[in-house]
Structure formats: structure tokens, C-alpha cells
Specification:
4 strands; 451 residues; mainly alpha; name from scop; elongated; 4-stranded mixed β-sheet; 58% helix
């Protein structure tokens, strides 16, 4: 058809999805030569193995069939019962051979294409009745190959049989001069050897046909680049649509994260890159948690929302980098950061009290040292995100793990793991940010404190 692609364009190997679909439609490699060889070889081997008992049984059955008295010949009921009994005896003698042939008939196709059961090939289709397509199949390259293969097989097997019989012509002529019993035995031996030789010759076309059928089947399933692209779109979705969905999910994730910023107790900033919002409810939480974090544009947005809602903000670049890198959203801070975060929360509480009751603002914490294992050097702060659990950083600031967890509607704490969960579980409720703060007598106004 005009809209069908030329076979010259189908240069790519079939994808697993294409192979599975073809298999469901009943398209699997099959070799008639392999099935024929197994049936003939198995049948000959079965006759050779069962020759003794089978010959004795058939000899007895034939003797009883042709040797009967006059009374049996005149009584139809007796003849029918005798014939039924002899038929059952012959059938039981031949049953092992029939069972062997049935098993080989089932095993032959399975060896090449595997076991398959599909009803699609049995479904009625008007295309199968199309004479034009039928004529095309008759003159196709596949039909020509099958014809040439059959002719070659006939020439090979027939030629070998003729050559063998020609070589045994003296023995065949001598059979006429031999007693009947010896002649029958010798003639059966010649027939058996000739049959075995013919079956052995079938190995050659079988070894040629099996690779050809595999190659032909793979060739039929070849795909063009356009077909592969279309299949990927159908199975994985359009990349452009997926990109737009990802952008929308990230936007929704940011919006949900930003909604938690107004409830934060403090925002720790690295003024040029990072912002991390913390919250702590004494009695309800074992330790402070990170409720929002981001870098660059997202960090700026966190600071804007926090400033608009009066959340205390502290500029502590090493601590901000450590929290952003090593603590996931909705995760508690690690034990190693308890002391420094306690000082930050105590400062935030004093700042809130100063705002509410008036007075001088508290001085900024001076000893906010971060343990060495949580240090994030400034020279790698642009790529520090990949060092911790949050995952790979994407455009917009949040990690893919954050976006996936938030966009799916599940709490990030359920979707992401922290390297410090076991440590936090041991610490539990021992976290004490600070004792009830008292106004600092030496407190002075510091321009770095959040207003």
C-alpha cells in the first residue's frame, strides 16, 4: 500500500515490544525440516527399539486373523468379537510408538520458536481470502526459497537412496534365489539401512533450514527508525508532553513547599545560593525538621516568602550548605547538627520575643561551626546537591527526589531516605534547643538579623 514503508527502510532490529507483539499474533520462527527430521528419526528409532515385541504381537494378530474355523466364519457375532479383540491387541502394541511420535510432533516446533498458544491466527480475516495477496504469497521470495529447498532436499535424499540401491543390486538379485524366510530377513535389513541413510541425509537440509528460518523471521520483524520512534512514543509517552508534565509537577511541588515557609521558625541562608527553612514544635517533634529548601531562584523565593511572613532569617553559609546538602525535605536534622541548630533556634526565639515585646534585637550566634563530615566547600557549592540524599539537581533548584515525592502527593519522608535516620532514632526526644531564653543584656542590633 502507498502508506506502507518500503522494506529497504526497515534496517533496524526489532524491539522487544515488537517481538512480543508478533508472538502474540502467532508469528514465531518454525522449521518444517526440523519437525520432519525428528518425526522420521524418532519413528525409525522407535521401530528399531520395539521391533521384537511389536513383531511378535503383530505376527500373532495376523495369524489369528487368517486362521479361523468354519463356525467362526458362519457366525458374524463371533467374527466381530474376534476382530475387536485382535484390533485392541494390535493397538496396544502400537500405542508406545504412537505416543513417541506425538511427543516428537509437539517438541519439534517448541525447540525453535518455543511454546506458544495464540488464537489470533485462527480469527476470521477477509484479508486471508484476498486472491491478490494469495497470489503474491505464491510468487514471493519466501515461496521461491521453500520451492528450491524442497527440490534440493528431494535431489539429495533421492540421489542417496538410488546410489545405495544401485550399490546393493547384487544382493537384491540374490534374494530371488534364497528361501522365503531368509529373503524376507535380508530384504528388511536392506530397507532398514536405506531408511536410516535417508534420514541421516535429512540432517543437511535441517541444519541449513533452522538458521534460515531464524534469519527470515528476524528480517520480517525489522523496523524503520520512524517505527521505533513511534513505538517509543506509544509505550513511554511523547517526550515533549512528559517534559511539560514534569515542569507542572515541579511547579506544584514548589508551591506546596512554599506553603510551609510561613510556618517555619527560622530560615538559614547562604545569601548567594542556598536557603533552608526549619521548624520545631517542642513535644511533637524529636528534633527540628527541614520544611523547605532550595538554591538560586528557589532560595530567593523562600527568602521573599519568609520575609513577607516575618520568619527570622539568619545568614550562615556553611550551615546552610550543610543542611541543604545532607538533609531531605520533611526530615529531621542529624545528631551532629543538634548543638548548632539549638543555638540558631534559641536566637530565633529571642528575636521573635524582641519583636513582640519590644527591645533590642539579640546578637547573632557567633559559634556556628559545622562538623567536618557535613562541611560543603564553597568551591563545589554549585554541585554539592549531588553529594547528599536529595538526588540529582534539576533546573529550578529542587532535586528530582523532592519533585517526585511532592508531585506524587506523598510525604517526602516516605519517598526519600536519609543517611542519618538511625542516628536520629537513637537521639529521639533528647533534643533540647535551649533553655527558656532571657533577654540578652549585651544584645545589640545587628544588621544581618532578619527584620
Amino acid at each position: 500500500m502507498a502508506d506502507e514503508q518500503s522494506s529497504d527502510d526497515k534496517t533496524e532490529e526489532a524491539t522487544p515490544h515488537r517481538i512480543q507483539k508478533a508472538r502474540e499474533e502467532g508469528q514465531v520462527p518454525r522449521s518444517r525440516e526440523l519437525a520432519t527430521f525428528l518425526l522420521l528419526g524418532g519413528g525409525a528409532a522407535g521401530l528399531w527399539l520395539l521391533a521384537g515385541p511389536l513383531g511378535n504381537t503383530l505376527e500373532r494378530v495376523l495369524g489369528a486373523s487368517f486362521g479361523f474355523d468354519r463356525a467362526q466364519a458362519l457366525d458374524s457375532r463371533v467374527m466381530l468379537a474376534n476382530a475387536l479383540m485382535l484390533g485392541q491387541e494390535a493397538l496396544l502394541a502400537l500405542l508406545p510408538l504412537f505416543a513417541l511420535l506425538m511427543v516428537l510432533a509437539l517438541v519439534g516446533p517448541v525447540l525453535l520458536g518455543g511454546w506458544m498458544f495464540s488464537t489470533k491466527s485462527l480469527a476470521p480475516s477477509l484479508g486471508k481470502l484476498n486472491p491478490v495477496k494469495g497470489l503474491g504469497r505464491m510468487v514471493s521470495s519466501q515461496a521461491l526459497a521453500e520451492l528450491l529447498k524442497t527440490i534440493a532436499k528431494s535431489i539429495l535424499v533421492g540421489g542417496v537412496v538410488v546410489m545405495y540401491l544401485h550399490a546393493q543390486r547384487q544382493e537384491l538379485m540374490a534374494l530371488m534365489m534364497m528361501p522365503l524366510g531368509n529373503a524376507m530377513a535380508d530384504s528388511l535389513a536392506i530397507v532398514a539401512r536405506c531408511t536410516a541413510l535417508a534420514i541421516l541425509m535429512l540432517i543437511v537440509p535441517t541444519l541449513m533450514d533452522v538458521p534460515y528460518q531464524l534469519w527470515s523471521h528476524a528480517r520480517k520483524l525489522r523496523m524503520s527508525l520512524e517505527e521505533i520512534k513511534r513505538e517509543h512514543k506509544e509505550t513511554d509517552g511523547d517526550p515533549q508532553i512528559k517534559a511539560r508534565i514534569r515542569q507542572q509537577q515541579q511547579a506544584m511541588a514548589r508551591a506546596r513547599m512554599m506553603s510551609a515557609v510561613p510556618t517555619a521558625d527560622v530560615i538559614v541562608n547562604n545569601p548567594t545560593h542556598y536557603s533552608v527553612a526549619l521548624v520545631y514544635h517542642e513535644g511533637d517533634m524529636r528534633a527540628p525538621r527541614v520544611v523547605a529548601k532550595g538554591r538560586d531562584e528557589v532560595a530567593l523565593r523562600i527568602r521573599e516568602v519568609g520575609e513577607a511572613n516575618g520568619v527570622p532569617m539568619l545568614s550562615a553559609p556553611p550551615l546552610a550548605r550543610a543542611l541543604h546538602t545532607h538533609v531531605d525535605l520533611e526530615q529531621e536534622i542529624p545528631i551532629a547538627l543538634y548543638q548548632v541548630i539549638a543555638e540558631v533556634l534559641a536566637w530565633a526565639m529571642r528575636l521573635k520575643r524582641a519583636r513582640q515585646q519590644g527591645g533590642l534585637r539579640p546578637s547573632l550566634p557567633t559559634d556556628l561551626s559545622v562538623p567536618d563530615e557535613y562541611q560543603v566547600p564553597e568551591e563545589v557549592q554549585g554541585t554539592a546537591e549531588g553529594a547528599g540524599p536529595p538526588g540529582i539537581q534539576r533546573d529550578g533548584g529542587e532535586s528530582t527526589a523532592e519533585a517526585d515525592a511532592l508531585a506524587s502527593g506523598a510525604p517526602p519522608s516516605d519517598a526519600m531516605s536519609s543517611d542519618h535516620d538511625s542516628d536520629d532514632a537513637d537521639a529521639g526526644a533528647v533534643f533540647q534547643p535551649s533553655a527558656k531564653p532571657v533577654p540578652d543584656a549585651d544584645a545589640t542590633t545587628d544588621p544581618r538579623a532578619g527584620s
